[in-house]
Amino acid sequence: QIGAGVSLPGVVAAKCGAEVILSDSEELPQCLRNCRRSCLMNDLPHVPVIGLSWGRVSPELLSLAPVDVILGSDVFFDPKDFEDILTTVYFLLEKNPRAQFWTTYQVRSADWSIEALLCKWKLKNIHVPLHSFSADKEHLAGSPLPGRHTIEMMIISLARSDGT
Question: GO cellular component annotations, sorted alphabetically (predicted)?
């Protein structure tokens, strides 16, 4: 999981039996401590937590084990980070061509989009309708999200040479 924050998606995946690696910014040690704390509180002391910097190839990024799914929960928050995030995702997908990047984001502005960056990095995007798994309700699991907010879910992967 990239941009793990408090690591809820990664912890849930690990509790369901997935092999998980949690990551957040190496420049935010508090986030990394929160990830480790979440793992300990959920009886997952074996889950590795690593610091990465989006857009930068580091020894930690180079040494990652093969992955099938990269989870990103609300990583598309600040438009200045979009390309760095997709650069890192592209690197991981090139290293793991059959992998997919599953991500969600809250649409905060009509002034920005990742579509052009997906084309630039030769990535394709499949939108997953929230209604397809009953997540389009006004209040979900006691949370006000999605509520009146627009939440997008997508699966991003490498585009084939023909662009599909």
Answer: cytoplasm; nucleus
